[in-house]
Recover the amino acids of this structure.
């Protein structure tokens, strides 16, 4: 333990837990800097309190803070470079650690556990300024989780929150999602993510809405297309399946690569010319190559089929070594098909996609309740055939 610091290395996921005392004023200043560029600032990050009980608890917390109550430590997640991570154990005191923290890019900092406490501190701080009393210099404890990979942070976050019932999986992922978006766009510039605050619509292949990417991340980790995002997840098996997936240190990188292949096929299929397909419901009416992955159920089917083939079925996970090898095999096979598609003209691409078959099948057999399952099965056929198909008919007709 260094002076004024408590540092422990988590060797399971290669990250550091650092507990340090902040003044209320310094902490709020750090948090506001971290979130001021995001819509709504600190308020925009808060899970809205709607129930009367929740509001009463928060008001009680504000009054307790004013009276000098000590809150449980707030947990902050931070992503740094591998080189910076190795320097943490050399930090000797609080001042040096604070300098280290203040140099972390704001987009790489997330409040993992303690948003309501932070909001209550902020409200109490503003009330103290108005009523002319002092809380800015009071001490609070902050625990930092510092990692060089978002996967390490995600795993620790999920393990921390598994005891919460009900458990809002989406809310937990959203706390670190800014970093996930940033890493995807840095690694794969061809992928354009339309942010949650941007009301723009997809106009070309390779564009995906941030909300949809969150969902793809969740179904990839849970290895199931049956995740109801608007609702809170209380299914213990889903939580454990997701945690098992993130225990592979390469999990997040595999997901990023899956997104890149989704983008590659999206762009390849865009060369299919427009074709008239009569007598189908508009919702299922695929006419152009760009139509396919503009459908979120199709994207979910693609991602979950790969997740199951790569990571193993829920409850029967492959070892990390086997997962990495499975994914390498899928990439090799997918690359061969992409190379073949690269030589197709628009007519050949239209013939390959077989949209007449797809629209006939979905108009007769598929409903909103089973469309995700259908597309997962379709892409499972493609994977099982090692991507060696003359066209997509076997996939749509399975």
């Amino acid at each position: 333990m260094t002076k004024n610091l408590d540092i422990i290395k988590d060797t399971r996921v290669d990250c550091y837990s650092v507990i340090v005392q902040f003044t209320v004023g310094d902490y709020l200043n750090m948090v506001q800097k971290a979130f001021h560029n995001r819509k709504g600032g600190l308020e925009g990050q808060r899970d809205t309190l709607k129930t009367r009980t929740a509001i009463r608890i928060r008001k009680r917390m504000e009054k307790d803070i004013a009276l000098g109550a000590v809150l449980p430590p707030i947990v902050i997640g931070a992503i740094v470079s591998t080189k910076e991570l190795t320097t943490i154990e050399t930090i000797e005191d609080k001042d040096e650690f604070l300098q280290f923290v203040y140099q972390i890019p704001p987009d790489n900092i997330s409040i993992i556990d303690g948003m309501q406490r932070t909001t209550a501190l902020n409200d109490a701080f503003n009330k103290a300024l108005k009523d002319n009393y002092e809380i800015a210099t009071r001490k609070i404890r902050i625990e930092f989780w510092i990692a060089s990979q978002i996967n390490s942070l995600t795993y620790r976050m999920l393990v921390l929150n598994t005891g919460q019932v009900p458990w809002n999986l989406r809310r937990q992922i959203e706390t670190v999602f800014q970093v996930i978006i940033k890493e995807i766009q840095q690694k794969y510039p061809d992928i354009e993510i339309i942010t949650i605050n941007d009301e723009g619509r997809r106009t070309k292949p390779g564009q995906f809405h941030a909300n949809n990417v969150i969902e793809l991340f969740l179904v990839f980790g849970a290895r199931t297309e049956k995740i109801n995002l608007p609702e809170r997840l209380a299914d213990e098996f889903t939580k454990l399946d997701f945690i098992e997936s993130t225990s592979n240190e390469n999990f997040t990188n595999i997901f990023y690569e899956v997104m890149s292949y989704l983008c590659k096929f999206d762009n390849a299929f865009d060369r299919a010319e427009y074709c008239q397909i009569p007598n189908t419901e508009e919702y299922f009416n695929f006419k152009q190559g760009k139509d396919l992955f503009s459908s979120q159920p199709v994207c979910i089917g693609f991602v979950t089929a790969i997740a199951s083939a790569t990571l193993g079925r829920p409850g029967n996970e492959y070892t990390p070594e086997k997962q990495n090898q499975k994914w390498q095999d899928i990439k090799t096979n997918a690359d061969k098909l992409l190379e073949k598609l690269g030589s197709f003209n628009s007519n050949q691409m239209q013939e390959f996609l077989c949209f007449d078959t797809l629209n006939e099948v979905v108009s007769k057999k598929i409903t909103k309740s089973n469309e995700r399952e259908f597309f997962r099965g379709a892409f499972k056929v493609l994977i099982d055939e090692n991507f060696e198909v003359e066209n997509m008919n076997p996939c749509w007709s399975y």
